[in-house]
Amino acid sequence: MQTNSARSKTIQPATVGAETDAMCGKCKKATRHIILAMVGVKPSRVECKACGAQHAFRSTKGASSRSRAAAAVPTLTPEEAWTQAMRRADGATIRYLTSGHFEVGQRLAHPTFGDGVVVALSSPTVCEVMFNTGTKKLLMGR
After folding, report:
1. More confident residue, 87 or 2
2. Of 85, 80, 92, nearest to 118 (Cα)?
3. CA 120 to CA 117: how far, in whole Å?
4. What global pTM score does this model have?
5. Does domain 2-72 have CATH number 3.30.360?
């Protein structure tokens, strides 16, 4: 029965919150991970479902397939990734306050970094926000 359910799985597109296979340095093997942050269309930060470790995304594929995949998918600049994230973001822009609580996909207006999109929740008091200059960790719920 397990082989039938494995065959019927559909491939999810890589998005924040989706699951993917990645190499875990702590487990020393390929395990299922949750995508925490992305740069363009590639996962950049993941959390291992087996041990809970958060680390940079490391593909389970060998170097030869990695170079082919890199040639097939153009790399986005931070500005292009931010533009795409802003298009996908939910609702109106909310002013950033350290006392606020934010969800993945919300638009934020930061007084220093400008407009951004929440791409991950690192903890109950920290969110990762993608700005046109890069991703920043910001406090929340304080």
Report:
1. 87
2. 85
3. 9
4. 0.50
5. no
